[in-house]
Predict the structure.
Amino acid sequence: MSLPVDDTPAIRVRGLRNAFGSQVVHEGLDLEVRRGEIIGVVGGSGTGKSVLMRAILGLRPPQAGEVEVLGVDALSPKARESGLIERNTGVLYQNGALFSSLTVAENVSVPLKEHYPELPEDMVHDLAMLKIRMAGLGEDAGPKLPSQLSGGMRKRAGIARALALDPTLLFLDEPTAGLDPIGAAAFDELILTLKRALGLTVFLITHDLDTLYAICDRVAVLADRRVLVNAPLAEVERFDHPWVQEYFHGPRGRAAQAALAKEA
Amino acid sequence: MSEAPRIETSERHPGILIARGDWTLANARRMLELIEQAPESADDIDGRDIGRLDSAGAMMLSRYAVKVGLGLATVDVRSEHQPLTGTVRAICENPPREVRKDYGFNRMLERMGYAVEDYTREVLALVGFLGLTLKTAAGVLLRPARLRITPTVHHMEQVGMDAVPLVMLLSFMVGAVIAFLGATVLRDFGAEIFVVELVGIAFLREFAVLLTAILLAGRTASAFTAQIGAMQSGEEIDAIRTLGLDPIELLVLPRLFALLLMLPLLTFLAMVAGIAGGMAVSVANLGMSPDMFLLRLQDTIDIRHFWVGVSKAPIFAAVIALIGCLEGFQVKGTAESVGERTTSSVVQTISLVILIDAFAAMWFMEMGW
């Protein structure tokens, strides 16, 4: 089973419904992510950004709706069994979710060894080191344990592991949360570089307005249990909804816009 | 479907190699073979016909280029692949230093050194922790209003009440086994009646308290370590400190007091259950009547055996509570560390309990108690 041709959207979600007991998080949610774009997913706390990501990744089956990833029905058991989606997606969790008992290099090697057991040991090591350096870490980070790294370095190591299988689709859950502004800007730059170099499609959950302005091609706003609007920033800013207006035209939103204007 | 990567020689210029197919991770094996079979030298490599290229492919292409005496810079690729080859080239051209793990003799010596240092530090930490806890306990005893009653009672239930069925069942079984063994040996001398003394003295002096302590070391010390360890890794202990509260007073003392109270009580129950086990075997196997067993027990066994046994219970309780809590405080962040510390706390408590019991047995014997 191989991937369908490249003109299908990277992610297509239709009529998604997610509920925890009586609390409905998503109802009739539609979302389409095009190939090769960085889509920023924003929304207030509790609007189900992470739940949406987990539903797309198949970590949490939705109550209703369709999810297609890279043209494959992600909810069908066939997609699960073939491991096709796992091999073509990389995920960076909020705190890196590195395996704490393995070194950084071993963390990056885990998916390689699992999905390509035929690779010789030295090649796995070289690939792991390549990914670690692509993620902007020095090679001395390889033999370190996650607990010996700073928060920013741990996120970079998380990206290195997410990139291990050269995925076409990269999920990032709040990549710049908990980083200082300089580190966050460097991380934005890294995402942009990787996207250009590897032709990635990036699904980016963020609260960071600077990240949105700096790197996102389109922005999807989650509110009222669905995707309110999914469009380039300029359009989203003009969207008539109290939350969107508050978000983009509040003091922080204005600061980020001003920063972008100064840069341009 | 992906197309296998291959290298062809240009028909018009024999020195020029043309790379075709998909140079992706899925074809890694094939790419390695290509590198194996690469010619000694070539004038140029043309990568414009490559179908799909990922970072693994770019790395392989770079290796191939080096093998035939060229650099990756000389390989032409289509414009959409250029950012990728550029990135990989920048990384591959500063080859990483070899970082090799050493598994040899030196490494063994190093690890032994670390282990010895760790043990020393652990002993010192335990002594220090004992002092700190005693000091805090003294402070609390002077101002009893500071004692946390609710958590103490909660822990009493967890370490005491909840352990009753297990402690009694196991003591009953061990009592029965001892009676059985004793009966088998003593029968040869026609002295089966001494089974009563054997079970009585063994349980009152040693087995009840030892069994209970070992069970609680496995059941309670590990629970204490995991509870406090999870709090430590969640920065809860730091929060307690910065809120001006004392983690010893808040977390250790309730657990210590609960164990100090419950372990002697559990020991008493274990004595009862063990002797009951011995009695059950005597009745079933030796034809003794329960009345006779109890009468003999009362006639021959001094109350001092009971006091010797119970007097050890508070000491074991302190060992279990202190090591369990101390190991919890030493957890460092990761899930692995919680596991290591929990194991260490169980191993330490069980060994220390048995060690102390052995010395106590000798001391009590010498004293004639």
Summary: The longest strand of chain B covers residues 16-23. The mean pLDDT of chain B is 88.
